[in-house]
Structures are given as C-alpha cells and as structure tokens.
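Quick question, first post here. What does this chain look like in 3D?
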Amino acid sequence: MSETATHTIWLTQEAYDKLQGELDHLSTAGRAEVSQKIARAREEGDLRENGGYHAAREEQGVQEARIRQLSDMLRRAQVGESPSNADEVGPGTQVTIAFDGDESDTDTFVLGSRELLGLDDSVDTNVYSPQSPLGSAILGKKTGETASYAAPNGRSIDVTIVKVEPFTS
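> Answer (accepted):
Ran it through. Tokens below.
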C-alpha cells in the first residue's frame, strides 16, 4: 500500500462538515471561552494553589491538542461517499471476513472510522481503520481472496474475504 493511502483520511462530506464545524468553534469561541476562564481564575490570586486556574490551563491544553488533531485530519482528508457498487474492500465498505478460512468464524465490520464516517453511538457497527493491520491487509481485496496480517502478539492471522458491500448507515 502506498504512503499516500496510509496517510489519507477518508471522510464522508457529512463527517468533513461536522469536523470542520468543531474546528471552527474550538478555534474561535472555544479559545475565547477558555481564555476568559483563565483570566477569571488568575484574578483569584496565588496561582500555585489555584485549582480553577490549573483546571482552565489543562482544559486549554486539551482543546489545543484537539485543534491540532482536527487540523491534521482535515488537511489529509479525502472526501467521498461510500461506494455504491463495492466489488473490492475500500473505505466505506462493509466487509465480512472468515478467520483462517473457517466460514463459521466470521466478523462483519465497516472499513473506515466511526468519527470520520459521521457515525454516532446509536449505530451498532464495528469499525476498523484502513490503517490498522487488518484494514491495510484487506484493502483492495475482492470476495474470495485471502490476506494475512500480524496480530498485536506477533502471530500471523489469515482471513478470507467472504462478502463486500457498500455501507449504508
């Protein structure tokens, strides 16, 4: 798989817009809110023993990290929709695999990212990243093809693609 494919983040338009909205809010009103909290806490006096000040500074750090994360994701994003006719495994497809060729030991999941596909907690679907060991091993495979990937313990796991279809939420 090319370096571009492993560093590209696949987004639906809805997910892109949602993440862009979050970034816009955090970069403007969110920063102003945290700055005001810090200023109010600073007015309370001794900063060494000021819990409100330290909490506001920590909130600022978390927020700035999220801004950097969102900026990076949106910069690397490739916007598209789930494929309407999936004949090979790709971002936005729902995939069923059989472990070690055992048709009774299967797993069905969406290749992508819950956040990046715009899925919320009400959607009860397993999601694997195309950058994960399993995701990168099966990317581009067709029904009936096999792939191997290394488990976290280093063991090689063989899977067979049983079914590939477009994901619809």
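Residues 23 and 68 are 9 Å apart (CA to CA).
The chain has a mean pLDDT of 84.
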